[in-house]
Design goal:
Helix content is 71%, strand content 0%. The chain is mainly α.
Length: 213
C-alpha cells in the first residue's frame, strides 16, 4: 500500500479515517447550505469528497512516497462517500439535530487532520518544521480546495476564524509532546484534545483574525 512505515502511531488509521469522515460531512453540509450556488447531489457529495480527501492527497503528493493513501486504500473512498451522504441528511427537518453536530465535528476534524498530517510526516523521516507544515496542509487543504471548486477565495486566506492558526498550534503541540514523551499515543491524544478545545473556544468567543492593511 505504501512504503512509509506507520509505527509512529498505532492510532494513525483511526485518526485519518475519523478526519476523513468528519471532513466529508462538514463539506457536504456547507455545500448544501450555500446561498451563492445551487449544488445538486453530485455537487454536494463531490464537495464533501474534496473536503475529506483533498488535504491528505496534497500531503501524500508532497511526501512523494508512492500514490496517495486515498488511492491505495479503498476505505478512504468509502468513508468519504459515507460522510458526504450523511451530510445530505442535514438541513431537512429530520436532519436538523444532525446538523447541529457540525460545530463539534468540524472542531474534531481539525485536530484529527493536523495530527494525522504530522504523524505521516514523522513516519516519512521528516524533521519538526516540515512535519508541522504538512500537519497544516492536511488540516486546511481539503477546505481550501473545496472553496476553489466552489468559485471563491480559500477562506483561510481571509479575515475570519483562525482555522490555519489552530492547525499550526495543534501540530506544534503534538510534535513537542511526541518529542518530550516519546509516546505517540499520548501525544496524539494531547494534540487532538488541544485542537478540539481551542477550536470550540474560538467559535464560542467568536475569535477572528485581523485584516492586514
Amino acid at each position: 500500500m505504501t512504503s512509509i512505515p506507520m509505527n509512529t502511531s498505532s492510532f494513525f488509521p483511526l485518526i485519518d479515517f475519523s478526519g476523513v469522515f468528519a471532513g466529508a460531512m462538514c463539506g457536504a453540509i456547507e455545500a448544501k447550505q450555500s446561498t451563492g450556488y445551487q449544488f445538486d447531489l453530485v455537487g454536494v457529495v463531490g464537495l464533501g469528497f474534496i473536503s475529506a480527501l483533498g488535504g491528505g492527497i496534497a500531503r501524500d503528493i508532497l511526501l512523494q512516497h508512492g500514490p496517495p493513501l486515498a488511492f491505495t486504500n479503498v476505505r478512504y473512498l468509502v468513508i468519504a462517500l459515507a460522510g458526504g451522504f450523511l451530510g445530505l441528511l442535514c438541513g431537512a427537518s429530520p436532519g436538523r439535530r444532525l446538523g447541529k453536530l457540525l460545530v463539534p465535528v468540524d472542531a474534531a476534524a481539525l485536530g484529527f487532520f493536523a495530527v494525522a498530517g504530522s504523524t505521516r510526516a514523522l513516519a516519512a523521516g521528516l524533521s519538526f518544521l516540515p512535519a508541522m507544515l504538512l500537519g497544516i496542509v492536511t488540516a486546511v487543504g481539503g477546505g481550501s480546495l473545496r472553496d476553489v471548486f466552489s468559485g471563491r477565495t480559500p477562506r483561510i486566506f481571509e479575515r475570519g476564524e483562525p482555522y490555519a492558526t489552530v492547525a499550526a498550534i495543534v501540530s506544534v503541540i503534538f510534535l513537542l509532546a511526541d518529542r518530550l514523551t516519546g509516546n505517540a499515543e499520548i501525544s496524539t491524544l494531547i494534540g487532538i484534545i488541544v485542537g478540539f478545545t481551542i477550536r470550540m473556544l474560538s467559535l464560542h468567543f467568536q475569535w477572528n483574525t485581523k485584516v492586514v492593511r
